[in-house]
Every structure is written in C-alpha cells, then in structure tokens.
Amino acid sequence: MLTRLPRWLFTLLLIAHVALLSACERAQSDVVDWRATVARQRAADSAEPSSHAAPAAPLHAVTIHEPASLTSIATELRDANDASVGIGCQTCHSLDDIIRGPQTDAADAGGPHAGLVFLHGDNTCASCHDPVDPTRLHLAAGEVVPMSEAMRLCAQCHGPQFRDYTRGSHGGMRGHWDLTRGPRQRNHCIDCHDAHAPAYPHFRPMPPPNDRFPPATPHEAAPAEEHP
Amino acid sequence: MTDSKIDRRTVLKVAGATLGAAAFARAVSPVVAWASELSGEAFLQKHYKELAPDEMRTVLARLEAETKEKYGAEVKIRDVRPTDGVQFGYALNLSTCIGCRRCAEACHVENNHDRRTHNSYIRVLEMQQGSFDLEHGTTTYDHVVPAPGKFYMPVQCQQCDNPPCVHVCPVEATWKEKDGIVVVDYDWCIGCRYCEAACPYHARRFNWDAPEIPAEEINPVQAYLSNRIRPQGVMEKCTFCLHRTREGLLPACLEACPTGARVFGNLLDPNSEIRWVLENKRVFVLKEELGTRPRFFYFFDV
Amino acid sequence: MENAERSIHWTSYPRFLLRALWLATDGGWGFYAWMTVLTAIALVGANAWATQVATGMVVTGMSDHVSWGLYIANFTFIVGLAAGGVMMVIPAYLYKNHDMHDVVIVGELLAVAALVMALLFVVADLGRPDHFWHLLPGIGRFNWPISMLTWDVAVLNGYLAINLHICGYLLYMRFLGRKPDPRWYVPFVLVSIVWAISVHTVTAFLYSGLGGRPFWNSALLAPRFLASAFVTGPAFIVLTLQLVQRVTSFRVPEGPINTLLGIMRITVLVNLFMVMAEVFTEFYTGGSHMSAATYLYFGLHGRHALVPWVWTALAFNVLGAIVLLTPGLAKRRPLLNVALAMIFVGIWIEKGMGLIIPGFIPSTLHELVEYVPSLTEWKVTAGVWALGLMIYTVALKVALPVLTGEHSSASLSPPPASAQPSAPAEAA
C-alpha cells in the first residue's frame, strides 16, 4: 500500500522519518553510557584477576586527623591561654588495683573522673586500656599499642565500620575526591565517637527550608501492617 | 461642519488613539525601565555551546563587572570544563544520615543562594521507619535529630542519565555535560519553567526575583555554569559543585556532612569510593520506574 | 492579463485590510463603551505584566512547588477554545452544510483571537521575555522535535497563519465580489481541521508525557482536552452568534446554532464521561497516586482550597448538560444561554484550576503547598482576556460588513473614505 503513494510523498515521509529518528538519537548520544564502561572494566578484571592497576599519576596524601584528647582526660581547669588542662592517666595511678565494672547507664564516673561518662557496651576500663600503663591500649590478643594507634583497636570490634571508613563510606572527608590532583583529610574515629561513650551525639538541625508557602504537615504514618 | 475635510468623529478617534498610546506607554513603563538596564551584549549573547573562547572571556569579564556593580563584591568567574575519563556519581548512606541539614546549609553558602529565602538545592526528608512512602515524609522538621523512629533522606538533583528536564527545554538551555552533570545556561534560559514541571525530584529552582546576598558572604570562586550569582527569572539547580569537582575537590555538601554519609567520585575509576559503594552496598535510586537513570544512589549499611 | 491582476492584489489586499480596520473603528455608543472598558482592563493588565517583568515573578502566587498557575491554566483553556472553532468548519466544509458555511468565519476568527491570547499567556508566563528570541528556529536553539513545547509553539503559530489566510482570502474575495478560487482555500481548510485537533493534542502532550507528574501522566489527558474544547468552542460561538444578531444587521439562520447545539449535546456528555473515568481510576486504585485527586475533590492534610471550585465546576457542567439535553428546557433561549455560560465557566474551572494546579499538588516529593493566584496574576489574565475580546470584536467588525456586502469594492465611494456625516449606523 505504501508503494501506491505518489513518489514525492513517499520520499518526503521517508526523509521526515529519518530526521525524526536522528533527532531522537542526537538527544540520547550526549549521555555517556558509563555502565557499559564499568561492565567492560569488570569483565577485563575477572578475565585477568589482578590488583587494580596503579594509577599513572602519583597520589596525594590522605592524612588522618590526630585529635588532642587521645592521651589525657579533659578537666574543667583552664590554663593561661584558656585551653583545657588535661591530666595524663599515669599521673594518678596504674589500673592494677582498680577494676571498674561495666556501667549500665550514662551516669558520671565521679571522683577524679568527674565528667567522664562511660557507656561503651559491656566493656570495662581494662577492655581497652593496658592495666600496667593506662596511657597505652592493648589489642584483643594482648599486644600493647600506643594511644596514637587507637584506630587499630576500634577496628578490631567494629570491623564493618572500619572497612566502610577505609573505603570512604564512613566518617566523611575534606579535600579532593581526585587524589591525583590534591590531598584529602580524614577524621579519626574519636573525632566523632568519644571512646568512652561512642554513641553519635544528637544534633540540633540547621533551620528548615524557608519556603514562601510552607508545606502542610502530613499525618503520622499508620503503623506498618503485620505481614503473615 | 458637514463639508469639513476632517470631521469630528475622525478627530475624536485620533485623539482617543493618542490617549490610548500614551496610556499604554505609561502602563508598560516598568518594563521599559527594566529593559534599559540590560546591556546590548547581554541581550545578544550566544548560547554557551556557541561561545568561542575569546567571546567567553568577554562574557565572563562582563559578568564579573556586573557582580561588582550590583553586589559590591570582587569575584572570579571561570569556565570550568569537564575532564575526560570522568563520570561523576554520588551515593548517600541512609543508615548514617542524621538529618542535621548541614549539607543544605553548605550548599546555600557555596552556591551564592538568595539569603532571604535561604534557598538550597538540597531538601532533607524526615521519613518514617518502616515506610518508604514519600507521602509520610516531611522537610519541615525542627527538633533534635535523629528522632526515634525516623530516618533521613536528603534529595537533590540526581543528574539523571535520561533527564526529563533536558528533553522538555524548548531552547536547549539545559543539557547534560560530558562528565554527567546536567547544567543550565542562565543567560539562555527563557524562564518557562517547563523543566521544573518535568523534574520528578523537585531538583530545579526558579529565581522568582533577583538574589540578595551581602557582599562579604559571597563565595568569590565561581563558574559560569554553576555558582555565579544567577539573574532574576531563570532556572538553576545543583551542579555537583562543578566549580570544585571539576578541579578534583569534593562537593561542599559532602565536606559539610559530619557523619560521612555522602560518597562522591568518578564512576569510571575502579578504585574510587563510589565504585566500592555501588559494588558492595545494596544501592537503589529514587523513582527508578520512571526510567530517569539517576547518578545519585542511596544505600543502607545493613 | 492575469499577471497584471495579480500584481494589483499585492497592494489592494493590504489597502482593503487597512480600510476595513479603519471602518471597524466606527460604531455606536455601545461599541465605544465596550472597547473603552476593554482597553482600560488591557492597560491594567499591561501594567501588571510590566511590573512582573521588572520586579520578578515573586509578585505572583507561584512557587517552586506549584510553578505553573493562572497563566498556563488560561493558556490551556484558550487553546481549547481555538481548537473548538473547528466544530463549525467540519459541518461547513466536510458535510457541505451551506447555512453553516456563511457563519463559519465566526469560528475561524475566534480561533485567531484565541491563538493570540494563548501566545500572550505564554509570554506573560515567561521569566525572561527578553530571551524570547532564543525560541526562534535558526536564530536561537529550537529543541524540536524532543521538546513538546516547541511543537506547541510551532502548531499554534501555524494554526494562526492558516486561519488568518483563510479568513483574509475569503473576505477579500467577497469584498471584490469575486468567486473564491477553491485551490486557495479548500486545502487550507482541510489542513486546518486536522491542525485544530493537533493543536490541542500537542498541548495535552505537554502534560501527559511527564512521568514525574502522575496526575497528568494519563493516556486520557489528550482526549479529555479535546472533548472539553469541543464543548467550550461551540458554547462560546452560539453565544456570540446571538450577540452578533442583536447588535449588528448580520442575520444568523437558526440552522448553524442548532447544529452547534447538537454537537454540544454529544461532546458535553463525552466530557463528563471522561471526568468520571478519571475519577474512578484515581480513587479505585488508591495509593499515593490518588493524593492529587483527593486534594482536589476532598482536601488533604487540612488544605482544601480547590474543593469548592471543582465541585462548582462539576455542578455547572451537569446542570448545563441537563438543560441542553432536555428539549423542553433547551428551547427556552434565556435558560439555554445561562446553561451555555455555566458550561463554559465550568470547563474553564475544571481545565484550569481542576487540571493544571492539582498536577503540582502534592509536589514530586509529596509536599503539599497550595497555590492562590495573586492580584497581579488576575490583572494580567484579565488584561489578556480583554485584549482577546478586543481583537475578536475588531475582527468581526472587519468581517461582517464584508459578508453582508455593506463593505465591498462596488460600494466604495471615491476617496476620501470617511464615515457618513449622518447619524452613525449601528456597528455593522
């Protein structure tokens, strides 16, 4: 039936059809199909499993912040520069004779440790601190490590979080995503998690959006239905 | 009067027409005043993709001068181009986000948003545990976070691979760049807001009037396609901070996040954090059934 | 001989138009009062628009949640009115209804006025009208065929051009007292029939193609648009024909009016059926996609600004349909006219506030922000309507004297072509 159209009309329709298709194609071709590239990379990788090829350019440093509070307990005292005065643990004692049990609430530890809240699961002081020299920590198998390597200890119990942290999915960062172009700074675990009461603190949020016409407040959702 | 060449009716008609013309001129005088402030070069400026490098330099110089005049701030506007071999991706950890809105605040500051409306490209939804229905989400919460029984989901431009906003723009004022970022040429947009109607993620913002920012709060590191101060009457949107990310820096929202819920990087780099997340976490996207193919992924830790 | 004749038309056609426009400024006190009021409203609208451009669209009631409002609602409705004129063209040309043939120009001129209004509403809605040239193909960047808005701009201007040509050509031939050459208008008329349907279908596709707006993302949207267009067009024309009969010497036979009413009896039911089909699908399915319909008909989360509007629209449509379909009621002209006005207003509400606004409520993030048009928006809208009515009035005043033969080349007195010094004739 199509061939019974007058030739000029048929040609015109054909041209219009091609023009339309190529216009659609033009719109799509701007989008880079990164998924195809990723699939190719994975296929090449699984065909020849190897550690991922080292990038050609040298990488900038990723530095982990070293917080000040690792080696002492903060007190309410202030020095001449109005900085908080810390007291090194060994100033007062070794842990040999003091075994504190785990706390079940966030009550103040009291006494010389006034201001220290201790709520870290079933742990005791000796779970982490070396009893002989409480300024140092000990790993699960007993190896004593300096306070500066506290992260190794955190990682022993909190493996998934540490794995996420090393892969960039936990704990945030500042600086460059592209380490061939600049450095990056990471937080230390205890920048966010006080080792003695590590639960992440609550925040007052930044103010809500200041819409010219504020949205209505929805009702509370009905409780989820019981699934059989 | 009957043999007068010009009769009374004609005189009245002409007088009426003159009066009407004068009244019309008076009526539209605000637009005449506004138009007189537009420069000729601004009016005739070509589309971003058609500007030669020297033309772009002229445009940038003019924009910097206009910013100095209008806002009293010295700024540097660059035309930051995409890098080859880079496709940006972004992921957000819904187990870690506490809904503090620092990302929205950082966006507001970084992108020179209007101060009165406290505009931002990011809206954070407080969602009900046990439900993923946006119907039960709210953006206006103002209590200590995270609240019990809630989780938090920031939403911003998804830089879709199949963007409805790009399809509907009648003048190609918005398009997807080589590295995946969907951008807007603010000087080409006609302000029809069709893209705002088309976007399924509430990602587009319109300049209902000219932004107001004190000079000392203006971020002077600007780019033509991202955070330069936008004119009245045009659309804008999140650009993944391309003035930063195309230089290798992290976007402002990610740096501001205190919990590290945000992950950003190059999807084509097998060693990148974003690739690790996509390959090791259960990621999903919003409104996947619409076929928009976002570059913004959400995941939970467990 | 023919070439010499043709060259005369290049000058005599514009002269004919200018002369007709000049004569159209003649009229009685009623005419001048009408035009003066419309001018005043148009000026208020122009001033409001100028303020909007200078100050920014913050003077409207729109927001990032509801980013289209009164302007686009009216634009959508008016495009329907323009397309509705085709309901006269089809009987006149396809069914050779001779009575209709004489008055079909009333519908075609309505399309012209409505199309100008539609284009003005689009311009009024633009944030940057100074960037308007970016739309021009070849000079700007015209994103055809991907963007439905480019299709809409193209078909609206094309339809305007077609109707201007058809009306202009036929009037000019009538003015010269010559028989029109079918080759110069019949193909255009046939194209305009298809084009009228496409004009409103394309406008519907603006909305129905958006996956992010489930309230619009329905296959039924384009048929709904057409059905409502084919109600409002004939309604407006029937009212206009009666008005023309009253204020001019132009005689309108009963046939065309009855044909249009007959068409309306079907289309008003089709329109109501489609509304019903839409309502069923929304509410029976339930779930989150029902939110927009719930908000529209019953209110949601304590917000219910559109509820009285939509129920009024429904009532107007139903009552109007009842009057139309009841022979005893329909033959009472005053009651019929009220019913036609009710149907017109009902569909204006239903298509505007009842279709465009709920598409944005709730938003794509399911936030519920209401929209109330600001005074500026009402002023600009009134101004565009006033300008459209002015254009329509002038167009009819140009066309009708030509059709009655009062303004013809034969009757032209030697120059100067000034009005008779005797008492001005009624606006014929």
What about the largest sheet of chain B? 4 strands, mixed
Tell me which oligomeric state these chains represent.
Answer: heterotrimer
User: What gyration radius of chain B follows from the Cα positions, in whole Å?
Assistant: 24 Å
CATH topology of the largest domain in chain B: Alpha-Beta Plaits
Helices and strands of chain C, in order, run as HHHHHHHHHHHHHH
Walk me through the topology:
The complex is a heterotrimer of chains A (228), B (302) and C (428).
Chain A: H1 7-29, H2 34-47, E1 62-64, E2 72-78, E3 84-88, E4 108-110, E5 113-117, H3 125-128, E6 137-138, E7 144-145, H4 150-157, H5 159-166, E8 173-175, E9 184-186, H6 189-192
Parallel strand pairs in A: 1-9
Antiparallel strand pairs in A: 2-3, 4-5, 6-7, 8-9
Helix pairs in contact in A: 4-5
Chain B: H1 8-27, H2 29-36, H3 40-44, H4 53-71, E1 76-78, E2 88-93, H5 102-110, E3 123-128, E4 150-155, H6 164-168, E5 174-176, E6 182-184, H7 194-198, E7 204-206, E8 221-223, E9 235-237, H8 242-245, H9 252-256, E10 262-266, H10 273-280, E11 282-284, E12 296-300
Parallel strand pairs in B: 1-8, 2-12
Antiparallel strand pairs in B: 2-10, 3-4, 5-6, 7-9, 11-12
Chain C: H1 2-24, H2 29-55, H3 70-84, H4 86-94, H5 98-125, H6 148-176, H7 182-208, H8 221-247, H9 254-285, H10 291-298, H11 307-325, H12 327-330, H13 333-356, H14 375-404
